[in-house]
Write a structure and sequence with these properties.
The chain has 88 residues and is mainly α. The chain has one domain. It starts with a helix and ends in a 5-residue tail after the last helix.
Length: 88
């Protein structure tokens, strides 16, 4: 997966998260990020990785995102690894 594709998938995940109030509330609570910080950090590698980690750790949200985006869980794993290859 290219870094550009990983970033695009991250933006898709952010958009999905923003449109899902329950998932967004849980992400904000789990990450400690405020709504303002979320807006300010949109598109940053750190936020994108945090969103991927959140989705990968919460299967119902992961499956809902995958269905909405036409992606699969393996794509999120690859994207996350592309953005931070030394994390695995």
């Amino acid at each position: 997966m290219s870094p550009e594709r990983a970033e695009i998938l991250g933006l898709e995940a952010l958009g999905w998260l923003a449109a899902e109030p329950d998932a967004l509330d849980k992400f904000l609570a789990a990450s400690g990020v405020s709504g303002a910080e979320l807006r300010d950090a949109a598109g940053s590698p750190e936020l994108t990785i945090a969103i991927f980690d959140f989705l990968l750790a919460h299967e119902p949200f992961l499956l809902a995102f995958c269905e909405a985006s036409g992606s699969d869980a393996a794509s999120l794993h690859r994207a996350r690894h592309t953005l931070q290859p030394d994390s695995f």
